[in-house]
């Protein structure tokens, strides 16, 4: 997710120097469409792997880890086929909401060429999530630290040097995501022998248990999408205030995305450590991790809040030299600082919830807080009461604060951790038994076929 943001910023930067406002708008619209209709869905589905693999690893069942990974790969590829027609309707959608015709066409062209990169990005992301469950986070960081600067080089070569324009940005993105996917696959295949038992191609067994996997993957997808879409809808609301408010909102949102990337690290630690402890039936250790994450997460949230508030003028000057935008941004950042406090908190709490595998209640709470509180209050304060951009973010602060409190209630009072561990053990034993039964059935079929082949010449 973090690299995707930087890739989009680099793409926008190179396109911005081509001298066409419609082209810049097209890339911006294209990125928004890709993120909301495809990337959020794919990343959300991939997060279903986090619960199953971390708990199975805690139980010491490596083959089951591999089966869950392959089920995730199959699900995300099928989801891609479903969303393909939606991706091809980008131009029609933007025209429907009265966007500029030329910008809409550029957006569709951009989306079409970017489609292959989504496949590579989704496979890299699911492998990255898989490795996170084993506590192996360094390799993905190294790969992205190398390929992100290289993306700027590919963009220079294809966009500036060969003057391929819009197509150049897409080719550069495909190159970057392909390198990511190949590099992480080669790493697991040749340099991590201890994961060999969990790293195999999809088999017939991988297709079994899809219903159970989807029960976890779909709420996981909704948790990612509902949050992502909320911020995009809020940006749409900003367009009803003024052009300056819309421009300021885009800058503020990019800053918040950058801040939230660091929160993702705590989220990964949450689902990895707690998932492993639940899988190994060590409830006491899981609760110790909960306490540790609470302490570190709370301190981290306060640091983010304080830094945003104190550096609000610096960030405003960094992103724009337009005085009217600077004033709006610096003023809104006073509220954004406290929004970030709530957003960061609910972000690392999500990691614990994913580790426990109790996503349904969390999803309902998120749906209520974001779509019944955040957005309606944002519209009421920002547009109806004419509080401007600050009003939109007041609504967001209230809703996200309630969401963070709801998550705290879930992980401390609502969820029975002993029951969660028991359910994880039963599910693992059931899946393992199914796997063994399938192996026996497969061997019996082969033996019967072999016997029939031997009998056939005698009969003839």
TrEMBL record:
One of its GO terms (molecular function) is xenobiotic transmembrane transporter activity. The chain crosses the membrane at residues 5-27, 33-53, 74-94, 114-134, 141-159, 171-192, 213-231, 251-273, 293-315, 365-385, 391-412. GO terms for cellular component: membrane. Keywords: Membrane, Transmembrane, Transmembrane helix. InterPro entries: MATE_fam. It holds the Pfam family MatE. Belongs to the multi antimicrobial extrusion (MATE) (TC 2.A.66.1) family. This is Na+-driven multidrug efflux pump. It comes from Stylonychia lemnae (Ciliate). The gene is Contig13551.g14460.
């Amino acid at each position: 997710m973090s690299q995707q943001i930087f890739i989009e910023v680099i793409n926008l930067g190179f396109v911005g120097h081509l001298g066409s406002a419609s082209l810049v708008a097209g890339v911006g619209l294209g990125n928004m469409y890709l993120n909301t209709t495809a990337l959020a869905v794919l990343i959300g589905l991939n997060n279903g792997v986090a619960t199953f693999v971390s708990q199975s690893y805690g139980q010491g069942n490596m083959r089951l880890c591999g089966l869950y990974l392959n089920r995730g790969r199959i699900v995300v590829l099928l989801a891609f086929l479903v969303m393909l027609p939606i991706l091809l309707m980008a131009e029609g959608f933007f025209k429907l909401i009265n966007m500029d015709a030329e910008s809409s066409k550029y957006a569709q062209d951009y989306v079409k060429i970017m489609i292959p990169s989504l496949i590579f990005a989704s496979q890299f992301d699911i492998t990255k999530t898989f490795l996170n469950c084993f506590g192996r986070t360094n390799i993905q960081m190294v790969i992205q630290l190398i390929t992100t600067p290289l993306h700027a080089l590919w963009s220079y070569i294809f966009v500036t040097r060969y003057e391929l324009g819009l197509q150049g940005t897409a080719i550069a993105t495909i190159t970057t995501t392909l390198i990511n996917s190949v590099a992480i696959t080669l790493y697991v295949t040749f340099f991590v022998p201890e994961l060999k038992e969990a790293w195999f191609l999809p088999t017939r067994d991988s297709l079994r248990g899809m219903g159970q996997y989807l029960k976890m993957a779909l709420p996981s997808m909704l948790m990612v999408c509902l949050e992502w879409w909320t911020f995009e809808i809020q940006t749409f609301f900003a367009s009803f205030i003024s052009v300056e408010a819309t421009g300021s909102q885009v800058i503020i949102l990019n800053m918040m995305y950058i801040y939230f990337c660091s929160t993702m690290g705590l989220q990964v630690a949450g689902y990895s450590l707690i998932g492993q402890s639940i899988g190994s039936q060590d409830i006491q250790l899981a609760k110790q991790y909960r306490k540790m994450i609470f302490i570190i997460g709370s301190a981290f949230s306060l640091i983010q809040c304080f830094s945003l508030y104190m550096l609000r003028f610096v960030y405003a000057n960094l992103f724009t030299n337009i005085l009217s935008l600077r004033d709006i941004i610096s003023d809104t950042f006073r509220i954004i600082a406290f929004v970030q406090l709530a957003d960061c908190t609910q972000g690392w709490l999500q990691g614990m919830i994913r580790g426990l595998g109790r996503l349904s209640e969390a999803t309902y709470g998120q749906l209520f807080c974001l779509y019944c509180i955040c957005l309606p209050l944002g519209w009421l304060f920002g547009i109806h009461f004419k509080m401007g951009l600050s009003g939109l973010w007041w609504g967001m602060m209230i809703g996200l604060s309630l969401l963070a409190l709801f998550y705290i209630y879930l992980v401390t009072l609502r969820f029975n951790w002993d029951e969660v561990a028991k359910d994880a053990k039963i599910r693992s034993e059931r899946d393992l038994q199914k796997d063994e039964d399938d192996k026996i059935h497969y061997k019996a079929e082969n033996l019967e076929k072999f016997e029939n082949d031997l009998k056939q010449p005698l009969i003839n």
